Amino acid sequence: xxxxxxxxxxxxxxxxxxxxxxxxxxxxxxxxxxxxxxxxxxxxxxxxxxxxxxxxxxxxxxxxxxxxxxxxxxxxxxxxxxxxxxxxxxxxxxxxxxxxxxxxxxxxxxxxxxxxxxxxxxxxxxxxxxxxxxxxxxxxxxxxxxxxxxxxxxxxxxxxxxxxxxxxxxxxxx
Length: 174
Fold this sequence. Notes:
Layout: H1 2-55, H2 67-173
């Protein structure tokens, strides 16, 4: 019964600890995920600008692209590439956070397994010691009964001998 109480307390404590650690990790993961999503949204906007720049023709009679139009398109493409690189970097950080979180939970699980195994070993040891002490108590109680019987027999013999001695003295005096 005590074992079950101890184990349930231990599991309750460990679960609370894991939930609080998970909340901190989840917060950083969510913040990183929001950064990646914002970069993806920025990329969509820049790609829309790129599409518009491809359509824009401001050269002679609006039939051709001017040098400035082509330079704006190139600049937009450069911004898209920079944004893509940032997306890759931030995604790599996101994956790193997730991997760190996974490793942390594996380490915690391993540590908790070791602790639970140690607690179970201690409990088993204490249960064996408790059984041994119960047997010792039973043996002592059993030996007390035999000692008591021997004491009663000795007292009875002393009483009988005292009676005979008293009777012999009465006979010799009287």
